[in-house]
Design goal:
Blueprint: E1 6-9, H1 15-25, H2 33-41, E2 45-52, E3 55-65, E4 70-78, H3 87-99, E5 103-109, H4 113-121, E6 125-130, E7 140-146
Parallel strand pairs: 4-5
Antiparallel strand pairs: 1-2, 2-3, 3-4, 5-7, 6-7
Coenzyme A binds at residues 25, 76-78, 83-89, 108, 112, 114-115, 117-118, 121.
C-alpha cells in the first residue's frame, strides 16, 4: 500500500476531502470551515497531501513564521486504513524541508500516544505544556525539533 502513495501540494480544490479527513481523524478537534480554507490557501502555510489512487489519504500543514525562524505543524492526519505505512513520516519530512526554518514546533494531546511515538521517532522532544488547551480540558504537550543544516 505505502509504496503507492505520492506527496503533492494541496490546494483549495482539496477542501472537501480535507474536511472529511479532519472529521474522520479528529472527532473532538476537527478544524472549522474557515480554518480549513485558510490552511489550504494562505501563502505562509505549507500544505501537502498524500495521495493514492487519486484520493487524499493524508495531509499536513506547516505554518511558517519566518521572523522567528520557526514553523508550526498545524495539523497532521492519515486516514485509518493507511496508517503504520510511513505516510505521516513522509508528510512531516517533506513539510520540514519545505518550511526551511531552524526550528519546528507542534502541540499534541497528552493522551495521543500514537502521535507522540511518531514525533519521538522523528526527533521531536517535549519543551512545555499548554494546560487544558484542548476541547474537554486535556493538556497539550509542546514538542520541538531543531532542524540540521538549516
Ligand atoms: C498519528 C498519525 C498521524 C500517524 O500516522 P501514520 O501514517 O500511521 O504514521 P507512520 O506510519 O509514519 O508511523 C511512524 C512511526 O510512528 C509511531 N506510530 C505511529 N502510529 C502508532 C501507533 N498507533 N502506536 C504506536 N506507535 C505509532 C511508530 O513508531 C511508527 O513506526 P513503526 O510503524 O515502524 O512502528 C495517525 O495515527 C493519525 O492520523 N492519527 C489521528 C490524527 C492525529 O492524532 N494527528 C496528530 C495530531 S498532533
Amino acid at each position: 500500500m505505502a509504496e503507492r502513495f505520492q506527496i503533492e501540494e494541496a490546494s483549495w480544490r482539496d477542501f472537501n476531502e480535507l474536511r472529511q479527513l479532519e472529521n474522520e481523524c479528529f472527532p473532538l478537534d476537527a478544524w472549522p470551515f474557515w480554518d480549513i480554507l485558510g490552511i489550504l490557501t494562505l501563502p505562509a502555510v505549507i500544505h501537502l497531501k498524500a495521495v493514492a489512487d487519486d484520493k487524499m489519504i493524508g495531509f499536513v500543514a506547516g505554518d511558517v513564521r519566518k521572523h522567528e525562524d520557526t514553523g508550526w505543524i498545524a495539523t497532521l492526519a492519515v486516514t485509518p486504513a493507511f496508517r503504520r505505512t510511513g505516510i505521516a513520516t513522509a508528510l512531516i519530512s517533506s513539510c520540514e524541508i519545505q518550511m526551511n526554518v531552524k526550528r519546528v514546533k507542534l502541540c499534541v494531546r497528552r493522551s495521543n500516544a500514537s502521535a507522540i511515538n511518531l514525533y519521538d521517532k522523528l526527533g521531536y522532544h517535549n519543551t512545555g505544556v499548554w494546560e487544558k488547551y484542548y476541547v474537554g480540558g486535556e493538556d497539550g504537550l509542546i514538542l520541538e525539533k531543531v532542524l540540521e543544516g538549516v
